[in-house]
Each structure stands twice: as C-alpha cells, then as structure tokens.
Design goal:
The complex is a heterodimer.
Chain A lengths: L1 H17 L2 H26 L12 E5 L2 E5 L3 H10 L2 H12 L6 H17 L3 H20 L4 H29 L12 H18 L8 H8 L2 H25 L2 H8 L5 H21 L4 H22 L2 H32 L15 H14 L7 H14 L5 H24 L13 H19 L1 H14 L11 E3 L4 E3 H21 L3 E2 L2 H5 L5 H8 L7 H11 L3 H20 L6 H21 L1
Antiparallel strand pairs in A: 1-2, 3-4
Helix pairs in contact in A: 1-2, 1-5, 2-4, 2-5, 3-10, 3-14, 3-19, 4-10, 4-14, 4-18, 5-6, 5-10, 6-7, 7-8, 7-9, 8-10, 8-11, 9-13, 10-13, 10-14, 12-13, 12-17, 13-14, 13-16, 13-17, 14-15, 14-16, 14-18, 14-19, 15-17, 15-18, 18-19
Chain B lengths: L2 H36 L9 H10 L5 E2 L2 H19 L2 E2 L2 E2 L7 H21 L3 H32 L4 H8 L12 H17 L11 H4 L10 H25 L11 H26 L5 H28 L1
Antiparallel strand pairs in B: 2-3
Helix pairs in contact in B: 1-9, 1-10, 2-9, 3-4, 3-9, 4-5, 5-7, 5-11, 7-9, 7-11, 9-10
The chains are: A mainly alpha, B mainly alpha.
C-alpha cells in the first residue's frame, strides 16, 4: 500500500505542474488524502497496540546498492496524525487562494511525499534522503517569495541543519555499522555525545528553537500563507519528531548523560525552550506586521514543546506531544486566517486593518477559537497541554523554567489581543470587504474540529499518543475520558465546560431581560459628526503597546539576529580577503606557482 | 451521589453565587464609604452599589454594537461565576475537589477576555487604549504573582488549591503559610499583585477616569454596564479569596460540627480585611504611569518574590 501511495504522490506532483489551477487544486486535494488512508489502514489493522514491525515487514527500496527501509511505527503514526491532515486542508484553502498555477501544488505534493517519507523511514539513510527532499521542495516554495533575506536565511540554515544531521549519522553508522533505526545505538563516550548533540542541533533548526530561529521570522513573513501554515504547523513538528526519535526512541539522552554525568543535558534543552518561549513572546507583542507577529508567536509556542522534551518526565513529554498537536492546528488556522485577511484587503500591517469582524464573521470565529487555544483558555484543548507542562515543571521543582513558562503564557494574551483588536475589532476601515470564499472558510473550520473534540475528551488524546510513548519506554499518565490526573492535581475538562454552560444561564437572563438596540459606533462615539473629520485620530491599534515598547525595546534590541549578522560579516571579511588572491594578472599567478614549488622543494629538503 | 445530593449541591452552588455577588457589591459600597472618609467627605450610603446595579439592569435604553459587543456581557458574568465556584471558600470547595491553581488562573482570564472583546468591538479608541493598559498591567503583576504561586506549589508539592488549603488548616492559624518567614515576603509581593488585579490605585491605570474616560467601559451602558459592575463585584470576591486560600489557609480555623459556619465567617472577615487594606492604599496614593507600574512589578516586586522562591527552594531540597 505504501509504495502505491508514494508512486501516486510523485505522479500527481508531475501532473499538477501542467494542468490549470482549479484542476490542479482538486487533484492535489484528493491525492493528499491518500496518506491518511494509510494511517486509517494501520489503525484498523493494529488498533492502538504497540507494534514495531519487524524488518521482514518493512517496505524496502533498493537504491544503488543500499536498501531503504520504510514502515509505520506508533511514533510516526502519531506525528502523521498531526501533520498530514494539514495538507488536504491547505489544498482546499488554496483552491481559491491562488489566481494561477505556478507550481505551488506540485511542490506541496512533493513536500507531502517527503514528509510522508520522513515519518516512515526506518533507517537513517532514508531519513536523511527524505529530509533533504523536504528541505529542497520547501526551499523552492520559499524561493517563490522572491525575498532575498528569506531565501538566503532559509538556504543557509537548512544546509547547516543538513550537515549537522549528516555528520551525526555518519558517526553513528561508522561506530554502529548499522543504519537501522530499530537497532539500539551501541555507542558511548565522546563520539556518541558529538553524534547525538549534532543531530539534535540539526533538527533544532527546523524546530525553531532559539537561537537557531533566525530564519523563521523572514521566511514566515514573506512566503505564501498556505505554505507558511504547513511550515509552522507541520514542518516544525518534523524537527521535534527527529528530536524525539533520537532522544527518547533511540535513548540518545542516556548517551549524552553517560558522557558528562555532571551536566543535565535535558535541562539545557528545556532552558533553550523556555528562553524561546519568553523572548519570542515579548518580541511578538511589539510586532506590527501580522505575519511577523504570528512567526514570533510560533517560535514561542514551539518553545513549550522543547521545554517538555527537556524536562523529559512522562508527564512533560505527554504535555509536549499534546502541545505539538494543538499547535499544528491552531497555528495553521491563524496563518490561514491571516492569508484570508490579506486576500481580501491586501494589507499586512495590523495598524492599517481594523473592524473586519462584522464583515467576516466566520473568519473571525475561527480565529477567535484558535486564539483561545493559543492562550490556553480552558474552553479549547490548548489548556490541557499547557497545564501538563506546568505540572511537569512544578513536579520537577524547576524554579527557573516554571515562572518563565507562566509569564510567557500571559504574554500570549497580549499579542493575541493585538490580532483580535487590530485586525478584527475597533474602527471599521473597509466598507467593501466581503467574507472569504466558502472553501477557505471550510478549511478553517475543519481545523477547529480537533481543538473542540480534545477539550471535551482530553483523555482520547492521551490514548492516541499512548502507543508512541510506550514504544519509547515512557509510561502513559493516569487518565479517564474526561479527566487527567497527575501526582499534583487533577484536571477535569467536562466539569469546567458544564459549569460554564450553567453559569451562562444567569448571564443570558440578564441579557434577555431588557431589549437592546444596535447602533454603529460612529453614531455613539462621534455623536453624528462626519467620520472623515476624526479619521486620523481614531485608530488606537497604531503602535498599540507603546508604553511596553518603550520599556522592553532596549533589552530586546541586540537579539540573536545581531550575532548572526556579526558571523555573516566575519565570513564576508574572510571571503573578501581570500578573493584578493585572484587578482586576474598572469604574473601574480606565476608567482604563486613559483612560491608553491619553492615550498614543496623546501618541504622535501626538510624531510 | 443520589438525586437529593445533587439537588442540595446545586442549591448550595446557587447560594454561593448569590452570596458572592452580594458580598462583592456590599464591599464596593463600604469601599466607597471608606475612601470618602479618608478624603473627608460623607460619601454615598453603603448600599449604593445595589441601587446602581438594579437601576442599570432595569434601564429601557440599551445600546449595543453588535454580537461581539454582547459577548462582553455573556462571558464576563459566566466566566467570573465559573471562577468563583472553582475556588475553595471557607475551606469548602464546591466543584472539582482536586481543583487546580493553574486552572483558576486561566479561568480568571475568560471574563477579562470577554470584556476586552466587547470593549474592542465598541470601536471607541479609549476602550482600545484601556484594554491595552489592562493587558500590560496583567503582564506586569502576573510575574511576581506566579513566582509566589510557584513558591507555594513547590513547598506543598501540589498545584491543587484544595490541598494547599487543607495542608494549611491542619493546626489552625499556626499552620497558615503567612506564618513562615519566606511566605511573609511572598505574601507582600502577592498583595501588591492583588492591588493591580483589583485595579485599585496606584494601579487603576486601565480605567483611569480622567485620562481615557473609564477606558474599556466607555461605551457600556444600561444592562451592559450593570453586568460589568456585577462582574467587578464577584471578581473582587474571587481575587481576594484566591489570596486567602494561598496564604491565609482559606480562612479555616475550626474543625468540627459548626466549623463550616465559623470558617465561613473568618473567610468573610479576611477578605474584607484584604479589601479594606487595598482600599486604604488606593485612597492614599496617586496613579502610576504604566511604565512605572511595569517597572515596579518586574523589578522590585519580582525580586522580592524571587527571594522568597529561592528561600523556599533551599528549604525544600534540603
């Protein structure tokens, strides 16, 4: 079955390159549903049993003398469940988003092909091959943005990540003489440490953990929104998939620990995650560009997953996987909704938008729901994941990480409200804007579904990830359908939801007791004066968090980008110095040859 | 639990909701009286807020700005009632016996978010500015507050508010958290955070009547303003109760047959003391600017809270 899916993905990618845009979108939509069939097939065959297929059941590809092994594992099944549904939704959305077919669908299908390959790889070589394929197909998608910063930064960081991963894999292969991921790594000491650390660093680039995040704000803010939704929702999870695979499934954390026992390497990952969450949130608060804001918020929210992996207890890892799942959906909604706003108004700056909520009620509702999930309001599944992570930090008495996580959670309210107020509420500045096309709205609401399902039944989510955790030897935490229990406390989602509904009754009685009249805000605030007179003074969303900006900016100014620029300038200086050797005069080259000969002769005589 | 048990529980829940609302309104009235006396005025009668709310809720003219504006009313009342019912009051927690401090923190955000949505939907720039100030204030006071919260949590090794209250009530007053030196410091920081949470001076920046025309509330009138007054009254009770639960053992002093009544009265007295303290501070200080408030919380208060956290951490790992 897997080989058929792979073949069809490639064929479809080629076909969609040549057909017209609407047809391409339809083909791409149906083809991108195929990998989900493979997941269903797995679930119906094995249920939620912890089954790692033996090597004889792997799908094998013989390629130039090596064998690539592909198979679904419980871990890849869970990650596929959060990443793969994004593709059909994005195709559905793109049906109306793109005016002409310029290769977007073909490249997205190639990305899907590579993503599916990464998740199925059972040996490091195929993992690396598919990883590179994914990097290159997404690079071509980034290239469509025609923005020099985005293209160069994505290219450089991808290449760096690829080298880091390849370096680690080569060491592991050399020491272990096996590339299979089902074998236990038989390596220790300095080499093992270097290999694992380098692989984790490589994956951390795609997982946008600070300070390796510098590419993300450029890329997220300049590319097509459907692609960015995949990049933030899906691709970043592949980075965390790699980290999980090498740290927990292959017990890389023991290798790190055995080499230097006095340093807690896990804790280091958690600290980097916490710093990502904290600083990215503060930077996001101060952004005026909607896409940049979402990019930094994405970095911040992904930081929580790193914290969870870093703390490394079953509770924390459960929370991290839950957070990864939620993030895939709510961040995809937010980026897609931002795309809708730009599609209808052509504007990205929050201070130039405003008052769209009544024009686009459905887009607003989906966005509101995504923001509830992002801000961990307990009426979406976003709360359960954050709660698990907080509990984990308190359980381990991590007194540095816990407050930072919590305050980053509060910071999320600030930038969330900036989106809500600046874009959707406040003064109405667009009279002729309509609601988005139906396919886009449908795409948004499909993504809202999981956020609702898993707030009512948070236990089901833990059931879904149970095989993945147990396959890695991590025990699953106690839960029922509605409640999650830890050693510290218990969270019962249904109690919250029912009480909220009951508490709505008095509110509703007050609301219905007296009639109200709807008036436009111009009538009320301006007392009937012409709106045009007050236009410049009206928009409060302009430079919204000005007082905070004044206080925070001096501390945030020399960010990571500053240091990367220093490195860039250093390399530029060295390269310029090296280039001076090529003067273009034949005499100079002749002198080089003579000098070289002299050097060789001197060396020979010395020997 | 049988049907009668459920019926009794629901009755108690409704009673608590009503008691919470009335207590809040009464306190607000008394607060106005106290401020008036500090300012050497006579002040309105202590039941003035009941009259105000009744008047506002029965007004015939109500101006709305669309369905998002109405969310403010619906979410503020329901969200704050939800929060109140999840808090241990006088040692009795009504819902979710293993209730959780993080849950309460995030439940407290529901009414504020609903309120902010309504304010934003009104389109008045003063409302937008007011919400911005409220959110920045929230970011400011939450830092010292969560640090003290974490200090308590790692000391009692639980995140459940019910457990924190239970462990503090073992020996009556002697086992209250505030009797321990590190938590005395923490309680000071948390009380300052409470001042910001209650939006009293010097931290009444979000409403700031003379600067931004009451900020978020500027477009609210009639039943909308009435419901917001109810929200403010219940929020006052909920926030002071949170403090009492964390540091003052939830007001639990007695165990036995009539303990329920005694504890309830002690709880009432304690939240009144906290509220009176905050009102007295409010009556004697002018308003901070927002950067000053932010600096106050993130520099001095955060350091004070961090000292208590480090102290507790050393105590715990020993």
């Amino acid at each position: 079955m897997l080989d058929i899916i792979f073949a069809e993905l490639v064929v479809a990618a080629i076909i969609t390159f040549f057909v017209r845009e609407k047809l391409a979108a339809i083909i791409a939509f149906f083809i991108s549903l195929l990998p989900l069939l493979a997941l269903l097939d797995w679930a119906s065959n094995y249920g939620f049993a912890i089954i790692n297929l033996g090597i004889e059941n792997h799908m094998k590809i013989y390629l130039a003398g090596v064998t690539l092994h592909l198979a679904i594992t419980p871990l890849s099944w869970f990650f596929a469940l959060m990443i793969l549904p994004l593709f059909p939704v994005i195709m559905l959305y793109s049906y109306s988003f793109f005016k002409e077919n310029d290769g977007f669908f073909a490249l997205m299908l190639l990305s899907l092909f590579a993503t599916f390959g990464i998740l199925l790889s059972r040996d490091m070589l195929s993992l690396f091959l598919f990883w590179e394929m994914m990097s290159w197909s997404s690079f071509l998608l980034v290239y469509r943005s025609k923005d020099k910063n985005a293209i160069m930064s994505y290219l450089i960081f991808s290449v760096f990540a690829a080298f880091a991963i390849l370096f680690g894999i080569i060491i592991l292969w050399h020491e272990n003489s096996s590339l299979l991921l089902s074998d236990i790594l038989n390596i220790s000491g300095k080499l093992g440490f270097v290999a694992i650390a380098s692989i984790i660093t490589g994956f951390a680039v795609k997982a946008v953990i600070m300070p390796l995040h510098a590419w993300a704000p450029f890329v997220y803010s300049k590319c097509d929104e459907p692609f960015v939704a995949f990049l933030s929702g899906g691709l970043s999870k592949l980075g965390y998939y790699g980290i999980f695979l090498f740290l927990f499934s292959l017990k890389g954390v023991d290798i790190l620990q055995n080499y230097m026992t006095n340093v807690s390497w896990n804790y280091l990952l958690a600290v980097f995650g916490a710093l990502s969450a904290f600083f990215a949130t503060l930077i996001a608060i101060l952004q005026d560009d909607l896409r940049k804001l979402l990019a930094y918020s994405s970095i911040g929210q992904l930081g929580y997953i790193a914290i969870g992996f870093g703390i490394g207890t079953p509770l924390a890892i459960t929370g991290a996987l839950f957070q990864a799942f939620n993030h895939a959906f709510f961040k995809a909604i937010l980026f897609l909704a931002a795309g809708i706003v730009a599609y209808r108004t052509g504007k990205w700056k929050i201070s130039e938008l405003g008052g769209l909520a009544y024009k686009m009620p459905f887009t607003f509702m989906a966005t509101l729901f995504a923001i509830f999930a992002l801000a961990a309001i307990p009426i979406t599944s976003g709360f359960a994941s954050k709660w698990l992570l907080y509990e984990a930090a308190i359980q381990q008495k991590y007194v540095f990480i816990a407050p930072i996580m919590l305050i980053a959670g509060v910071g999320a309210f600030l930038y969330s409200f900036r989106i809500l107020y600046g874009v959707f509420l406040g003064e109405n500045r667009h009279d002729s804007v309509e609601e988005a096309p139906k396919s886009m709205i449908a795409a948004l609401f499909i993504l809202v579904l999981p956020l609702i399902i898993f707030v009512v039944f948070p236990g089901y989510m833990l059931d879904l990830m149970k095989p993945a955790l147990q396959a890695a030897g991590i025990e699953s935490i106690a839960h029922t359908k509605f409640a999650i229990e830890t050693s510290l406390a218990k969270y019962n989602s249904i109690a919250v939801l029912i009480t909220l509904m009951v508490a709505m009754i008095p509110a509703f009685v007050i609301y219905k007791a007296r009639k109200h009249r709807v008036t436009s805000f111009e009538d009320n605030y301006l007392a009937g004066e012409p709106y045009e007179l007050h236009k410049p003074a009206m928009h409060a969303a302009n430079n919204y968090y000005k007082p905070l900006k004044k206080v925070l900016l001096p501390y945030l100014e020399p960010g990571a980008t500053y240091y990367f620029e220093k490195i860039y300038n250093g390399i530029k200086c060295v390269s310029n110095a090296v280039r001076r050797i090529y003067t273009g005069y034949v005499q100079d080259y002749a002198i080089y040859v003579v000098l070289f000969l002299l050097f060789v002769m001197g060396w020979l005589i010395w020997i | 639990m049988d049907m009668i048990g459920i019926a009794i529980k629901i009755t108690i829940l409704i009673a608590y909701a009503i008691i919470g609302t009335c207590t809040g309104l009464l306190f607000m009235g008394i607060g106005r009286k106290i401020v008036a006396r500090v300012h050497n005025r006579v002040g309105p009668p202590f039941y003035q807020n009941f009259i105000d709310v009744a008047k506002l809720l029965s007004k015939k003219t109500n101006i709305s700005h669309g369905w998002i504006f109405d969310l403010a009313l619906l979410f503020s009342i329901s969200g704050i009632l939800l929060t109140l019912l999840f808090l241990p009051i006088g040692g009795v927690q009504l819902l979710s016996t293993d209730g959780d401090a993080f849950l309460v923190l995030y439940l407290l955000a529901i009414p504020s978010l609903g309120f902010a949505l309504g304010a934003g939907a009104s389109g008045n720039p003063n409302a937008g500015v007011g919400v911005m100030r409220a959110l920045v204030m929230m970011l400011s006071y939450e830092l010292p507050f969560v640090i003290t919260l974490i200090a308590l949590m790692i000391y009692y090794d639980t995140t459940s508010l019910a457990t924190i209250v239970r462990m503090q009530s073992i020996n009556g007053i002697k086992s209250w958290a505030i009797t321990m030196p590190p938590f005395m410091i923490a309680a000071f920081a948390a009380d300052m955070a409470l001042q910001g949470m209650l939006m009293e001076q010097p931290f009444d920046i979000p409403v700031a009547p003379h600067e931004i025309a009451s900020g978020p509330m500027v477009e609210f009138g009639g039943k909308y303003l009435g419901s917001l007054m109810l929200y403010k009254a219940i929020a006052l009770v909920a926030e002071t109760t949170l403090f009492v639960d964390l540091f003052l053992g939830g007001g639990v002093v007695a165990h036995g047959n009539f303990a329920f009544v005694i504890n309830f009265i002690v709880w009432l007295a304690l939240i009144f003391l906290l509220f009176a303290l905050s009102i007295l501070i409010a009556a004697s200080f002018p308003r901070f600017r927002i950067e000053q408030a932010f600096g106050f919380y993130w520099k001095y208060e955060a350091i004070i809270a961090a000292i208590s956290l480090i102290w507790v951490y050393i105590m715990v790992i020993k």
